[in-house]
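Dear Dr. H.,

I hope your travels went smoothly. While you were away I took the liberty of generating a structure for the chain from your last submission, since the lab meeting agenda had it listed for discussion. I wanted you to have the full record in hand beforehand rather than looking at slides cold. The sequence, exactly as received, is reproduced here:
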Amino acid sequence: MLTENSYAATIAKIKDEIETARLKAAISVNQHLLMLYWKIGNIILLQQNLEGWGTKVIERLSNDLRKEFPSMKGTSPRNLKYMRAFAQTYPEFVQPTAAQMENSIIVQQAAAQLPWFHICTLLDKVKVPEEKNFYIQKAIENNWSRNVLIHQIESGLYHRQGKAINNFIQTLPVPQSDLAKEMLKDPYKFDFLNLSEEYLERDLEDALVNHITKFLLELGAGFSYVGRQYHLEIGGEDFYIDLLFYHLKLRSYVVIELKTGKFIPEYASKLNFYLSAVDDILKHPTDNTTIGILICKERNKVVAEYALRDINKPIGITEYELTQSIPDSFKGSLPTIEEIENELES
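The corresponding predicted structure, in token form, is as follows:
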């Protein structure tokens, strides 16, 4: 007799199979499309080298392909130029075997796992091969949309990630120390905030929480928001952590303290105190050691290194940047995002 539980389990299994099949089909279609574009790009490159093809020939080729394949997308002159650049950038792009297709195994070129417009973005915006490979791997690991990929490139993630001053090698085991170091950025870009010239730490904290989605994007993959001004009672006294997160990959709490001024050594001591308290009060036996991030407006590298030298808790010290602070006298006269969008639509 079919029970409700067994029926629900059956439905769940069927859904899993359908989703897996759809994923494999999407991967297969994407890989075949990339291979087609790579081959077309190579043909164009070869003819250019042999006959000196220029822009006009590509435009003519685009028109002829549109006439021959009217229902086919992606034959615009612009896209054909991307195909040429793709073939030029990846001269040894490899067609996956049938077995690789069946098992969704990574093709030799990591770029084969990305959608075409992700690749176009990389061809447009990133010229250095090492930097391009960095963004490819991050896009695959974190399942970035094209808009997120553009944001990360334009914010200079490659040059910011893992650059903050920290004591992780001394205070965390491998590979957790490497993951924690990679988690940090220097500086953090808070360009999504609109703050007046004279703002306080509470104003910065309020703005980050009000824009928590963008803040989490800037922090990076794996962060889960726990709370702000998180209350801890220690020895009968009340203490409040600016921002508390949990990092899913590191399996540890992350305490973030915000300072709108210049870093001073006392900040590291206070953060060390909070880390000890979280480890004792909140940390589960299966959690890893709590990590602290001190984000300041300014930071002297030498002073920060001395401040961390004899601290036995994992702490990173970094800076943040606002693209431009807006004076209060102008804020009321500026259009809102909604007003700009409405104007553009009309």
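Two observations you may find useful: The first strand starts at residue 165 and ends at 166. The radius of gyration is 26 Å.

With kind regards,
E. W.
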